[in-house]
Specification:
Blueprint lengths: L4 E6 L2 H9 L8 E4 L8 E4 L1 H4 L9 H7 L4 E4 L2 H16 L4 E6 L2 E5 L7 H18 L6 E6 L2 H8 L7 E3 L22 H9 L5 H6 L2 H8 L3 H9 L13 E7 L7 H21 L4 E10 L2 E13 L2 H12 L9 E9 L14 H21 L28 H4 L3
Parallel strand pairs: 2-4, 7-8
Antiparallel strand pairs: 1-6, 1-7, 2-3, 5-6, 9-12, 10-11, 10-12
Helix pairs in contact: 9-10, 11-12
Protein name: DNA polymerase
Family: Belongs to the DNA polymerase type-Y family.
Keywords: DNA-directed DNA polymerase, Mutator protein, Nucleotidyltransferase, Transferase
Length: 409
């Protein structure tokens, strides 16, 4: 077994980019918010804020109690995406980036002489130096080096911020025994509780379990993959076709009513339609969800003939809205998702919709083309008119937005 993976994890990425670009924020506790509202939570925190116990998910009100001097800034997803590509280029100037795993994580494959510990550490130092020189000294990263991606990720978390940890093959498994189960990527609160029910409470016990025991504990093939990952083996994954896509949004205070819900849902749906068409996919199910304060969420879902036509999907949305609950509870978050995604080759045309198909396709192509050329709100369907400034581009953990399709500019 050799060293095969070098994992780069950028520390407090959103907050660090803000501090790098805005010198007045440097050295100060920063909380990054998706929307500037007292009722929302931090989606990122600077290390100065983390020192007070503030982290992703901390409510604004709680963050103020923990740190009265905290400064809140509104997230700028397009800036983070642009910086992300800039950082990839910098790392690429040092060694090839094998895979981008999220907006702030990437893994590089070590080959040849790079697999020697001293050379791997020199490469890590070279990457850090290049980032400091070209991206700025506020953009710090933790680097993990190990026999596989999983262990390199574990290593990158062992020393933050700005750390560099190498787990050599001969150190396995003892090097892992000082960690908690939750320190291993893929084991969250619920999975930890599940493992505890199977009498696995430590990493040593996890490592000692055989392949079948882990398969049973996980209830899926992921348990067998964990067996391999702990031993430095790179598991094989079959890449699945995209099965769903969608957008969600925490509502600004002024939109927290039925009219605002409808407008923002229209806006999300139209954005999702353009994104779906960029993948050449059709949706065969649509669902919407509205979260309320002091009341269960309202959710509706419906099957439909596979389509990428915005007008047809708007019709489904309006059908849902006719059943919108009559309540005084405040709606604070909404979402639209398309599932059962298929390509046009996978479905037969609906015999009752043959005639309009070509004209619908041309209409959608024209809308997408004009919005791409002149700005995303050049042409839109009227239902979104009152929410054009809402639901800006967001960055999901495992999805880096395509700026040509998802930018709000």
């Amino acid at each position: 077994m050799q060293l095969n993976a070098l994992y780069v994890d950028f520390n407090s990425y959103f907050a660090s980019v803000e501090q790098q670009l805005m010198p007045e924020l440097r050295g100060k506790p920063i909380g990054v918010l998706a929307v500037m509202a007292e009722t929302t939570c931090c989606i990122a925190a600077s290390y100065e804020a983390k020192a007070f116990g503030i982290k992703t998910g901390t409510l604004v009100s709680e963050a103020r109690k923990l740190c009265p001097d905290i400064i809140f800034v509104e997230a700028r997803p397009p800036v983070y995406v642009q910086y992300h590509h800039f950082l990839i280029d910098i790392v690429e100037s040092c060694t090839h980036v094998e895979k981008v795993l999220s907006i702030d994580e990437m893994v590089c494959k070590l080959t040849g002489s790079q697999q020697q510990p001293e050379n791997a550490l020199k490469l890590a130092a070279k990457i850090k130096s290049a980032l400091a020189e070209k991206a700025g000294d506020l953009i710090r990263c933790s680097i993990g080096i190990a026999p596989n991606t999983f262990l390199a990720k574990v290593a990158s978390n062992m020393q933050k911020p700005d750390g560099c940890v190498l787990i050599a093959p001969h150190e396995l498994p003892q090097r892992l025994y000082g960690l908690r189960l939750r320190d291993l990527n893929g084991i969250g609160k619920q999975m930890e509780a599940r493992l505890n029910r199977y009498k696995i409470t430590t990493v040593e016990q996890l490592y000692s379990a055989n392949r079948q025991q882990l398969q049973v504990a996980w209830g899926s093939v992921e348990g067998e993959r964990m067996y391999d990952k702990l031993r430095g083996i790179e598991p094989y994954y079959v890449k699945n076709a995209r099965s769903s896509l969608g957008h969600s949004h925490v509502m600004p205070p002024e939109q927290r009513n039925e009219v605002g819900v409808r407008a923002v849902l229209h806006r999300l749906l139209q954005k999702a339609c353009m994104r779906m068409r960029s993948y050449d996919l059709l949706a065969s199910r649509i669902s919407v969800k509205v979260k309320f304060r002091n009341m269960p969420s309202w959710q509706k879902e419906s099957a439909l003939s596979p389509t990428d036509n915005t007008l047809r999907l708007i019709e489904a949305l309006e059908t849902f809205m006719q059943q919108y609950p009559q309540t005084n509870a405040e709606p604070y978050a909404v979402g639209v998702s398309f599932s059962g995604l298929v390509t046009a080759d996978e479905v037969a045309r609906d015999l009752f919709q043959v005639a309009p198909l070509e004209s619908e396709k041309k209409l959608n192509q024209a809308i997408d083309s004009l919005n791409s050329k002149f700005g995303k709100n050049t042409i839109y369907f009227g239902g979104a008119h009152e929410a054009l400034k809402d639901a800006p581009m967001r960055i999901a953990f495992n999805h880096i937005p395509d700026m040509d399709v998802e930018s709000d500019e």
